[in-house]
């Protein structure tokens, strides 16, 4: 733990108590098109919470965790990406750091049609899986394949739009796909009893999911701004756990085509399944347990050849979190 804390102090610098002096523009790259789990960000912007803390946060849409990690590595100040993708990107040379976790449990799940003859994920061998190119599941597929005793190239990936996943399965354009669990209600509604499903957690891989990440140079030079964004984001997520409707309404007001009744379902699954973590309740909302980060990195190391090796302490820090902001104990019960 001491090693972890020392590394965290080095990442964010020594001026941790200084207030934010003026408005600083912060580009925050989302991992995909806006959905229920992004609602707290829109609410915090609508309410002026980021501006009051000295940050002019501008949301930008990327196409997958791999894409958002690359965007932050290329210079965007902050973003959202699953931690596995962050580790892969850092190993390829991107100077990025996770500063707050959002999905304490892996949201990843595999979907297929039972009528296709597929009984389990092992039956994907020789089949076509549909996903966008920058999707986190495609980035991390070699890790789950390894655990299942499959070659990573045992499947053929087909590029499809996320919104087309149910239709692509039903039409048998693809044999399987992946989706975050907070979209599970869509798959159940569209496919019904013929839906086959296996979460990555049930297959023995519960990597940290979506996390707030920062460009390392920005983190060094503007640590106070990064801290302000992190703490407002913590506050927004906790507020939306307690009162989700205004948060989803804020997102719907900012983004055309949002259906609030659908995104409330997305949000409720997010809270019930993906925030359910003792560290969120007892340490701080967004807290990353060092042992889990090390275990996640071990999975990445055994699956990918990292061009630039690094230690777990270099890719994730809890130093910016407000430890008084915790998930209410009853939120996921």
Structural commentary:
50% of the residues are buried. This protein is 41% helix and 16% strand. The strands form 2 sheets. It has a 5-stranded mixed sheet, sandwiched between helices. The protein has 2 domains: 211 residues, D-Maltodextrin-Binding Protein, domain 2, CATH 3.40.190; 96 residues, D-Maltodextrin-Binding Protein, domain 2 (3-Layer(aba) Sandwich), CATH 3.40.190.10. β6, α6 and β7 form a beta-alpha-beta unit. The chain is of the alpha/beta class. It is built from 14 helices and 10 strands.
Side-by-side strand order of the widest sheet: 2-1-3-10-4
- What helical percentage do the residues reach? 40-55%
User: Can you write the helix and strand succession as a string?
Assistant: HEHHEHEHEEEHEHEHEEHHHHHH
* Stretches with pLDDT under 50, minimum 5 residues: 14-20
Number of strands: 10
Q: Rg from C-alpha positions?
A: 19 Å
Backbone structural class: alpha/beta
**Might you state the CATH topology name of the largest domain?**
D-Maltodextrin-Binding Protein, domain 2
Q: What is the count of helical runs?
A: 14
Biggest β-sheet, characterized? 5 strands, mixed
Strand content: 15-25%
- What's the domain count? 2
Write down the CATH class of the largest domain.
Answer: Alpha Beta
CATH architecture of the largest domain: 3-Layer(aba) Sandwich
Relevant CATH superfamily of the largest domain: Periplasmic binding protein-like II
Using the alpha-carbon principal axes, give the shape. globular
Distance between the first and last residues' Cα: 29 Å
């Amino acid at each position: 733990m001491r090693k972890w804390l020392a590394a965290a102090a080095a990442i964010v610098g020594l001026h941790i108590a200084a207030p934010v002096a003026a408005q600083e523009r912060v580009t925050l790259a989302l991992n995909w098109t806006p959905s229920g789990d992004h609602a707290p960000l829109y609410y915090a912007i609508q309410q002026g919470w980021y501006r009051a803390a000295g940050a002019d946060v501008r949301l930008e849409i990327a196409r997958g965790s791999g894409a958002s990690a690359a965007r932050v590595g290329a210079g965007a100040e902050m973003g959202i990406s699953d931690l596995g993708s962050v580790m892969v990107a850092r190993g390829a040379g991107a100077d990025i750091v996770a500063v707050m976790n959002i999905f304490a449990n892996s949201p990843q799940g595999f979907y297929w049609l039972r009528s296709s003859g597929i009984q389990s994920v092992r039956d994907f061998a020789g089949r076509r899986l549909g996903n966008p190119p920058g999707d986190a599941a495609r980035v991390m597929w070699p890790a789950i394949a390894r655990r299942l005793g499959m070659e990573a190239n045992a499947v053929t990936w087909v590029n499809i739009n996320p919104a087309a996943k149910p239709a692509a399965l039903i039409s048998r354009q693809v044999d399987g796909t992946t989706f975050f669990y907070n979209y599970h209600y869509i798959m159940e509604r569209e496919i019904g009893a013929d839906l086959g499903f296996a979460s990555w957690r049930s297959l023995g891989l519960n990597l940290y999911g979506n996390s707030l990440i920062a460009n390392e140079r920005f983190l060094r030079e503007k640590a106070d701004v990064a801290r302000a964004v992190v703490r407002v984001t913590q506050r927004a997520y906790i507020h939306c756990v307690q009162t989700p409707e205004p948060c989803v309404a804020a997102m719907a007001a900012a983004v055309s085509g949002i259906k609030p009744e659908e995104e409330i379902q997305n949000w409720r699954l997010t809270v019930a399944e993906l925030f359910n973590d003792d560290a969120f309740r007892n340490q701080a909302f967004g807290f990353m347990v060092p042992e889990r980060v090390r275990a996640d990195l071990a999975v990445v190391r055994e699956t990918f050849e990292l061009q630039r090796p690094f230690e777990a302490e270099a890719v994730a820090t809890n130093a910016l979190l407000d430890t008084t902001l915790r998930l209410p104990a009853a939120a996921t019960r």
